[in-house]
Each structure stands twice: as structure tokens, then as C-alpha cells.
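Incident log, structure service

09:12 report received: a user says their structure output differs between two submissions of the same chain.
09:20 pulled the input from the user's history:
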Amino acid sequence: MRRRKPVEGFVLCGIFFWTIIAHLISTCLAIQLEERMEIVRKVLKEVPLIDGHNDLPWNIRKFLKNQLREFRFGEDLRDITPWSTSAWSHTDLRRLKEGMVSAQFWSAYAPCSSQHLDAVQLTLEQIDLIRRLVNLYPQHMALVTTADGIEESHRSGKLASLIGIEGGHSIGTSLGVLRTFYQLGARYLTLTHTCNTPWADCCKVDEPGRVPHIGGLSHFGTLVVTEMNRLGMIVDLSHVSVPTMLDALATSKAPVIFSHSSAHAICNSSRNVPDHVLKRIAVNGGLVMVAFYPHFVSCGEKATLKDVVAHINHIRDVAGVDHVGIGAGYDGVNLVPQGLEDVSRYPYLFAELLESERWTEEDIAKLAGRNLIRVFRQVEQVRDQLEAQGMLPIDQSIPPEDILGRSYCRYSGPRT
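09:34 re-ran on a clean worker, output below:
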């Protein structure tokens, strides 16, 4: 038998020693994570976790043509085609419960290609889809239209389901359509998607070489915002240009939100919010709900949970902890950060934040849902104040010159 040389023995002892140390460190970190997860679970039992944007309704349209009899939302969609083979699928009831999500804004979306054509009809069909989906699962979901309703659903253990309309083209340049959407349960309108409307510029005009169409909001665009204030409908500025952000902030009497955007200072995507607007958001009392899409987070195809944390911390640093929330954008993206693969992963994000001493349980509660509930209540208060002042519905139409020369399907007879 060959005897080991002293050096070989020393090396083996060293390897054994560091293996033990690595195992102890790993065990310690695991214990620390579980301790933080317990704190997160405690917070999310007391405070509703609210996500500002999920595109599942459009996926149901794409995959099932809105036929809900074929949609098994209560099962794990990772085991069911076509969801199991799609990079765009991140949501089902089981994973929402695992992620401790208490309230979700579902997107009623019509693509920009439908503008001036059937955008209003498509949006109505998506609102109908959301309402039918909620009705299919009455023990698990509830349609909610108020801030109080979110808290009531949280106490009853149901997923508060809210409707957000993604894109101002969905109203067909009609305040009457806007009011009708509100009556059907829509509680925010994103002023544009990735296309200009005849009354507002989108984020695309901020990109190099692009020319603004309006330079922000037109006069009619300010009337849209004013009428939303009167209704009690949240103004959403995700997707809009920076001048449109500033015009909306100057017009709105109520707090505004970004339902799914991140920090421009970290990733200079035109979909993100620059610091000077973040400062205005703090003054306005509004909220930026951080998106998870890697192209908005790392400006590339790959991102991690820690990258999302960096955006949350930056928005907190500039605007304050009262003005940041979560708006992941699941089911509307085909790439997600490592560690935030689907709707079940929200608790891990909050646990990561708690690793820093700057984040307290109260701060996590604000980020999770209290900030959005505060904004929602303030929007409702402005509505009530305007009603008490006797403000009537705005009955003005968009000026004909604002839509002149467009491929606009429009009745040419008498109009109000």
C-alpha cells in the first residue's frame, strides 16, 4: 500500500474542511431565507398582495378564442397544452394562491392594429371574458371595483379581480365609451399602448429618431384625464411618452399610476420612468408598479430577481417607499427573470428585500398592496369631491381635425 505524502494529506484535509464550511454556510442561508419567508407570509396574510397588470385574458383569446369551457384555470396549466408549451404562460389559480396574490388587475387589451377599426368591440369582448372567468370560480374569485372591495375579498380569501383597459385607442376617441367601460367595471385606463392615439403620444416617440405626433396630450386628451377623475377611474401612464406623463400629471387632480413600468435610470427603455417623473409622482401621490420583463429590467434578454430588486430600491430612493408597487406583467411577456418565473414567486421577491435592513415589515406591506389601496381610495375621494361640487359628465367630442386623414371607421351622420 502506497503511503500518502504529507502534502496530499494536507490538501485532502483542506478540501474536507472547506466542504464542511460551505455546507454550514448553505444551511445557515437556507434557515435565514425560511425565516424571511415566514415574515413575508405573515405580512401577506394581513395585507393584500396586489399586482397591477396580468395579460392572461389576451392569452385566452389567442389560445382558446375566448371559449372558457376549454380553460382549466383551477388546474396546473404547466401540465396542460397549449399553456405547457408556451413561454407566454405564467398564471393559474394554484400558482396565484401559492404566490399569495390577493388582488389582480386583469388587462382588457386590444392590439394597436385594431385602432380606428374594431378596438372598442375587442375591448368589450375582453371585459366580458374577465367577468365570465370570475363567475366560473365564485369560491376563489370576486369581481371588485372599489378599494374596500379589495380588502373585503382579502378577508374572505378570494382573489379580488379588477379590470384595467390597456390602451387609450380602446375608447375610440369617445368619452361615452370611456364612461361605459367604467360602468362595466374597468378601473384604470392606460392612456396609450405602443401606438399614438389621436389625443396622446406613446413611449415610441421618445426613441431616437422618432418625431412626436402631439407632444404629449392634446386638449381632448386632457378632457379624457379630467373625465377619468370625475368617474373615479385610475389614470395609468405605462406605455406613454414622457411629455404625455408630464401633461397627465399636470392635469389630474387624483394620483396616477404606472401599472407595469420600471426605472429608466437603471434600464433606459422608453417604457420606463425617468427620475424627474418619479419626483413628480411623489408630489402627485401616485405609484410606479415595477414590471418584471427583462427588456425593462436589464435592457436584455436575461435578468434576475436581484435586478428587479434594484429597480424597486431605485424608485424608493427617488420617489419614496409610499410610491412603489408591483406590476409584473405576467402572461404578456415571453421572458422572465431568474427567480421570478411565474406568479408563485412573489414571496421570494419580498424575502429578498427583507435581507436588507432598510426594508421593514411595514415597508413590505406598502409595496405589496397598501400603496395601491391608498391611491385607489384617493381617486375615489376626488370622484366624490367632484360630484359634491356638481361636476357633470363632459360631453365634448374630439375635434374632427384631430382625426382628419386617418383610416377611421366612423359614422358620418349627426353627432353630439
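09:41 both user submissions now match this output. Likely a transient worker issue. Closing.
09:42 reviewer note: The longest strand covers residues 101-109. The chain has one domain: 64-394.
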